[in-house]
Write a structure and sequence with these properties.
Length: 498
């Protein structure tokens, strides 16, 4: 009898739990389809991949300075070429639901809004001085038209996506000069505007999310902002430590999601060890109770080969699911099996370890894009280039003699990215040496042209061949973030100086 009573009380307690209580961690990926929209089948493949790794959330970063990847009803004139239609999005959401993946939209409503203010109809809403270079920016928070516009756009996005969440962005906002122009306090204006956006999202039945940078940097903002939000904590330093999170929690920010990155301004082409270490730091915050969930961010797809990012996305999923520090052997066994259908061999394990060591300082890519190679006067950079050249040559020369049972294109892409790291490091070393062998330079020129051709072929398979981003940066100071532009510029450099 006591046992029956106990079971009855247990059932009552369970039934009395809030219906919206979260039973599992958010374990997901953010994809940046605003900077580069990929073919629709890629997003379906991504959802399938995520489900295979027991992820449950896809954050769709569909709007930013470069464009808006969904043709929203009433705002079709803002949409980029090949943009998703509302019907396309509904089909993608249905596929995600079938696979257990919730799709959260991110509509940038403050900074990163040149997708709006670059259009002639809305150029008057740009706050500050605009140029053809990308910089932190803002839509005018004091113009009533901005509030009306954002109210309509938020309503449309909220009606399109059934997720309980709506990400509002609000990162990297630049209101510099506002005080001089208006006499108003920048912090007060920022808080007032963002609180209005939060209220609009709430009025549309959504739990708002925003990025954490302004809250982290400005204590006054942190105090005054509506706390009934989900705070998206991002910091891409490889040595990131969540030192400020307990303070934010004490201030009332109870819902925090960690947002590391395997492709960001610090890292290109390969999800390399420094950024994997960044993921480790964010995942540790979830394990230690400083945050609730984790979404791995993958920025600017033109920086990498489409098929070379699966390792980095699987890495964070494995960490969250295991709730332990990374065990590379266990992870590599699972990655080899899930991705290629093969048991992990010693050679495959060595390949994974060496491949993720292929990392070049971000300033290298800027040097190539700007045709300014002063960085090669730094002995530390030369040592880095020699290390990457040697290691990438070893990866290429010891290519695994195996045929994946599935996803052979992923392994091919991983090797191609290693070849890219080789031609980058070898080309820069030739420039640094100035009097290198003409035979060596000729061999390099043949190799880099072959690599470029194959990288272009991969682009055309998974991305739109007519996308201007393939060979041209929308903003002139972002050429360093376009892999094909960087490769072509290095190819065209006169390497042999007589």
């Amino acid at each position: 009898m006591k046992k029956i009573v106990f079971l009855f009380l247990t059932l009552i307690l369970i039934s009395c739990q809030p219906s919206d209580q979260k039973n599992e961690k958010i374990n997901g990926v953010m994809i940046d389809c605003s900077r580069l929209l990929e073919k629709q089948e890629y997003y379906y493949k991504l959802i399938d991949f995520m489900a295979d790794w027991n992820m449950n959330t896809l954050l769709l970063h569909f709007s930013d300075d470069h464009g808006i990847a969904i043709s929203l009803s009433g705002f079709e004139k803002l949409a980029m070429p090949h943009a998703f239609t509302p019907q396309d999005i509904k089909k993608l959401i249905a596929h995600g639901k079938k696979k257990g993946i919730e799709i959260i939209p991110e509509l940038e409503v403050f900074g990163h809004t040149r997708y709006i203010t670059d259009h002639p109809d809305y150029k008057h809403l740009y706050f500050g001085d605009k140029s053809n270079k990308i910089s932190f920016n803002a839509i005018d928070p004091l113009n009533p038209e901005t509030i009306s516009l954002m109210t309509a756009m938020i309503k449309e996005v909220a009606s399109l996506f059934p997720s309980e969440y709506l990400h509002l962005g609000c990162d990297e906002v630049n209101l510099q000069g506002l005080n001089e122009r208006t006499g108003l306090d920048e912090t007060a204006v920022w808080v007032d505007y963002v609180n209005k956006m939060i209220d609009i999202a709430r009025n549309n039945g959504k739990t708002p999310m925003i990025w954490s940078d302004h809250i982290q940097k400005n204590e006054e903002i942190a105090k005054l902002l509506n706390k009934d939000i989900v705070l998206m904590e991002w910091n891409y330093d490889p040595d990131y430590m969540p030192t400020k999170l307990p303070t934010l929690m004490d201030m009332g920010y109870k819902n925090i999601i960690m947002c590391p990155s395997v492709s960001c301004w610090r890292s290109r082409i390969i999800p390399s060890k420094p950024q994997l270490k960044n993921v480790d730091g964010h995942a540790a915050a979830v394990r230690n109770g400083n945050a609730d969930d984790l979404i791995n961010t993958v920025w600017l797809p033109m920086r990498y080969l489409q098929q070379s990012m699966w390792y980095g996305m699987a890495y964070s999923a494995f960490l969250v699911n295991s709730n332990k520090p990374m065990n590379f052997t266990k992870f590599h066994k699972l990655f080899s099996l899930k991705t290629f259908g093969l048991p992990l061999s010693d050679e495959m394990n060595s390949f994974f370890n060496d491949w993720t060591e292929l990392h070049l300082d971000r300033r290298i890519y800027s040097a190539i894009a700007n045709n300014n190679y002063d960085i090669l006067n730094d002995p530390e950079r030369i040592l880095e280039l020699k290390k990457v050249k040697s290691l990438s040559a070893n990866v290429i020369n010891n290519r695994l003699d195996l045929v994946p049972k599935k996803n052979p294109d992923v392994l091919t892409s991983m090797y191609l990215s290693a070849e890219i790291m080789y031609v980058l490091s070898e080309g820069l070393l030739l420039i640094a040496e100035k009097d290198g062998s003409p035979i060596r330079a000729d061999k390099w020129e043949t190799t880099i042209q072959c690599v470029i051709t194959r990288a272009e072929t991969e682009w055309d398979q998974g991305r739109f061949p007519d996308d201007p981003a393939k060979y041209k940066a929308k903003f002139t100071n972002q050429e360093n973030s376009h892999l094909l532009i960087v490769l072509r510029k290095l190819r065209d450099h006169d390497l042999v100086k007589n």
